[in-house]
UniProtKB/TrEMBL annotation:
Gene3D superfamilies: 2,3-Dihydroxybiphenyl 1,2-Dioxygenase, domain 1. SUPFAM superfamilies: Glyoxalase/Bleomycin resistance protein/Dihydroxybiphenyl dioxygenase. InterPro entries: Glyas_Bleomycin-R_OHBP_Dase, MMCE/EMCE_epimerase, VOC_core. It comes from Shinella yambaruensis. Keywords: Metal-binding. PANTHER family: METHYLMALONYL-COA EPIMERASE, METHYLMALONYL-COA EPIMERASE, MITOCHONDRIAL. PROSITE patterns: VOC. Coiled coil: none annotated. Residues 7-145 form the VOC domain. This is Glyoxalase.
Length: 145
């Protein structure tokens, strides 16, 4: 099986003020920014707090080599909100593109990685956030778009 964390897709930064942060990046010439396209219904959607997940706001920017995602977690309890409260603004996770979401999740579990959140759609797309904070310093995500 290919390495799980080989094809970096995005860097997700948790911020307090989405509009202010986007404006700052734009002042540096980084953009354009777009709303994260939440697409499709999940067959499986296992997150710590669905209401908090639904309320999160994201802005994204595609650079030549990677996407930047800015996340405003809102006020409801979530891992992202706890990260912001405990550590302040910063990189919450790295997202890696994989060919097979299910196989990647199984591979991560076989490596002993705990799962923070996961979602799978009918077409096989989706995500899995592994709890790698203690040893990697951040969450590592696998995703198939």
């Amino acid at each position: 099986m290919p390495p799980l964390f080989n094809n970096l897709h995005h860097v997700c930064i948790v911020v307090r003020d989405l509009e202010k942060t986007v404006a700052y990046y734009e002042s540096l010439g980084v953009g354009p920014w777009f709303d994260y396209p939440k697409k499709g219904t999940y067959l499986e959607f296992d997150v710590p707090n669905k209401a908090a997940s639904d309320a999160m706001r994201y802005k994204c920017c595609d650079l030549d080599n990677v996407q930047i995602q800015l996340c405003d977690p809102g006020e409801l309890d979530s891992p992202q909100k706890r990260f912001l409260d405990e550590r302040g603004e910063g990189v919450y996770h790295l997202g890696f593109e994989v060919a097979d979401r299910d196989a990647a999740e199984a591979h991560g579990r076989a490596l002993g990685l705990g799962v923070v959140a996961r979602g799978r759609r009918m077409d096989g797309s989706g995500f899995c956030y592994f709890d790698t904070r203690d040893k990697a310093g951040i969450v590592l995500e696998v995703r198939k778009s």
